[in-house]
Amino acid sequence: MAFRLTPHERGFYPLFTRAAENIVRAADDLAALVAADPPDRPELAKRVKDAENAGDELTHEILVKLNSTFVTPFDREDIYRLTSSLDDVLDAIEEAADRIVLYRLGALPGGVARQVEVLRRAAAATAEAMPHLASMSQLREYWVHVNALEDEGDAVYRALIAELLSPPDDVPPAGLLTILKTKEVVEVLEEAADAFETVANTVESIVVKES
Amino acid sequence: MAFRLTPHERGFYPLFTRAAENIVRAADDLAALVAADPPDRPELAKRVKDAENAGDELTHEILVKLNSTFVTPFDREDIYRLTSSLDDVLDAIEEAADRIVLYRLGALPGGVARQVEVLRRAAAATAEAMPHLASMSQLREYWVHVNALEDEGDAVYRALIAELLSPPDDVPPAGLLTILKTKEVVEVLEEAADAFETVANTVESIVVKES
Amino acid sequence: MAFRLTPHERGFYPLFTRAAENIVRAADDLAALVAADPPDRPELAKRVKDAENAGDELTHEILVKLNSTFVTPFDREDIYRLTSSLDDVLDAIEEAADRIVLYRLGALPGGVARQVEVLRRAAAATAEAMPHLASMSQLREYWVHVNALEDEGDAVYRALIAELLSPPDDVPPAGLLTILKTKEVVEVLEEAADAFETVANTVESIVVKES
Prior knowledge:
Three copies of one chain form a homotrimer. Chain A is mainly α and 211 residues long.
């Protein structure tokens, strides 16, 4: 019978999986919000905010466990970084939902829905990968996939920015303000895509260390 | 007689207290600057800048002590995080003062003074809490208080942004520019409130670890 | 014969030097881009992007080495911070190049070329300093120099922002948009200068620890 001299605390893996599944829900709600009529958006933004609060509680739970666990499955600093990068993803998704409502934006350019679609796919890939942390298997496909999604998101983002920032010469100041508000939403969605890549890079560095 | 086998280096606590008291002074000067006539502001911004320089020296002193101390009162990484989050508060306060002067803003919307008032109360709570790090007592009230202040600051911030970004349809481009400059100041004040919350969360995680 | 009980892995120093030399090349290409006619800029932005990719590979190489090395020449966390701050410099330089092209900016204000000139000098100073990490000598001059350059960059930055944000009252909305795009480039160049200072401060804290 195989056994380990330093039995690892395995309770971290389900928490990472729950954190990622929580992000899946937030990304779904954000997609619904982007497609919704403006009067229906505040309710959906509240759901994204609830997901962010649930994420904060998971972060707290992971950090408490980290502080009370003597032998962790991988470096404490890596657990800290993974937790904090998952938190960054959720913060960016929540900020995007919040800005769309706070800025009272109307219909959004089509590229915004495409950005959110990329986020949903990155969220699904992340939630699928987290349970594999226990066995350190099948994670290479995950980070290659997330890096490809980040490239795709980047192309959508760049096309959107180029389109937004080339208004007709006679755009009125109020139209310019709408452009600037929309640009902020587009930027924060791009930050969310980058944050998914940081999660994947953190997982990669954990796997490299263990191999 | 009680004694400790690993006598803790207690010189860190007074440094954290001094860092927080320095933030109190910077927040007071920022409040004066916001209330002042534009010609009187550069002098007050200089005082805030002086406080930021004093804060940088304290940060340096803490890090030098950290590097020369074998047994620290709590995790080195926690000392690093607490120092760096106190530094972030001061940086945001200084940036707000600086932007108001650099952007040559005139009278500011009333909400800005309310944001700064929240910062002053968070600064006072932080300065009062730091000496309790030595005994790890009475810190729960502090972080509950700072979290409540952050919620209050957030409400002020959101109302301000909604007001700023709904100008009349015939706003001239120069008026739009003033709106955008003011929005930047409002954002950085919100960052300062968030940074106070990060300080409180860092203290919370230190207490959780020690308990 | 002198020998060390814990032979340090010295392979880190050449990697830091290569990372800094890569930044020198990126800063040179950015200077060429700023001076170039707009149609010639995308080719130069691609070169800066290539440098950023090369930098990412160096970062990866350093982190892999860090994870496979038992005894490092200085604290693992310091190696991590130095690597990550060099990466931040390159990211900011790449972002500036990218924005100038993505935003289809025309001729840039003279201050932008002055900002980039400061970056080139900071890059040269950094590349010259990295090989001295092995002996921990002559590093004080380096960080004093980089801090002076950061002050110089800050003065250029502030004059530029004051100039940009004081357009004539009858500026049209399209002119305002150009101002805001240019301001973003100017801000990210200032971030690059700050990031060089963070590299220097990290080196300083390593030297303080070792002395």
